[in-house]
Amino acid sequence: MQIANRVMLNTGMLYGKMVISIIISLYATRLVLNALGAGDYGIFNLVAGVIAMLSFLNMAMTLSTQRYLSHNLGSGNVLRQKMVFNASIVLHLLLGLGLVVLLEAAGLLLFDRVLNIPADRMPAAYTIFHMMVASTFFTIISVPYDATLNAHENMRLVAITGIAEAALKLGIALYLQYTAFDRLVVFALLTASLSVGLLLFKRVYCAVHYPESRIRPRKYFDRKLAKEMFFYGGWNMFGAMSVVTRNQGIAMILNVFFGTIVNAAYGIANQVNAQLSFFSATLLQALNPQIMKSEGAGDRERMLRLAMIASKFSFSLLSFFAIPLIIEMPFMLQVWLKNVPEYTVAFCRLILLCTMINQLSVGIQTGVQSAGNIKWYQVTVSTLLMLNLPLAFLLLRAGLPPYAILVAAAALEVVTCGYRIWAGRRLIGLPVAAFLNNVVARTVSCALLSFCIALLPAMAMGPGWPRLLLTCCVSTAALLASLRLLALTPYETGKLNDVFAKTLSRVSPRLAALKKAA
To answer: What mean pLDDT comes out for the span 70-86?
Structure first.
């Protein structure tokens, strides 16, 4: 139970951080949109797409390094941990320099021949791009430190820095309301500076608290290990790049056909999706180290069990918030933004649907990553995701509305999910029948049942706060009841009850005693 308590404690800290960060970020986004206007906000989301790119790259590279660190933490090999960290430092320094050169060269082509940006805002767009490239470099060379924090499950620091980052972003948004300088440039400069500052802080913290994270490449660098990590991380990054290319490629195709106003709608939809995805990502951040450590310790059975739990709980957690939001999206966006760009509602609903489909197999992704044989897995998944771009171009060329490309994206996500399940059986011995029955069928059925029940208030009442509150309550109650009755296995129910009882005993021993007596 010590491991379960640790996962519960880590998850609790991350959720506390997440709730505070989401509240602050949503309000900050409203301030930024009002300060910049839809046009400049669309330009920022288009040009600063490198921020989205580095977040996915950062996630992929952190997962790669974390996989090696967690394996050796599971086996207790301290020397190997130092060798992994120093090899990672060298690799990420080279990668950062190479990516800066590549991005700057690609930027010349994009600005001159591809992007549809008003001429008077082109200098500001160039400035934003250079700032984001610099921020990308600092983020990449800090990846080994992020991986170290995750491998050691130091979620307290992750929570503190996350809250600090959200508060500083709110400060930036408030400053934009009063500055006399070009608000778009100021926003980009302060956002990039914040990113660099927080990442440098993590580097200093890790160097002080974790001996293996001290840079000594001459003593601990192993060329064979570095080569192995390079190929593993390369395929992992290739997979992440396909997600980035899909998302930013869609943004560019929308820009070519419809201009920056539609980019603003797409950017807002991605912002909503990113905030809600924190709920499931938070659980994964707490579970991933345990999945990888189980594989490192040679316990494949436990690894598969945790991977299936991760998929089920990630989808369910996202459903708690996505279902009422999908139903009440027009009202919520109106309250949040006041001036809602056209197509924002459809974009938000469809992107959330894509993310929910992805979450059904997210535990399998971590399980395959922990096993290490990922070359053809990443090639196939990346190819499926990249099909979104030619499909998007053809659909818009045929005269269909902008949201048609996200309908196609949802269909491709279903196909990709099916492949991940098949690959999980072949690569890590995933029991497909058990996964389809215990994870996919049960959780999807619960979500569909809850969605149908939550539609009742929308059919009987007009939009407003009373209907929103009732929809949230009905949806939550229906999903909780259906999950408890239909989705959770006896093992999962027992573990949740044990963890809840121990948590309650720490918070209030009297309440725990009363519950036990009852």
So the answer is: 75
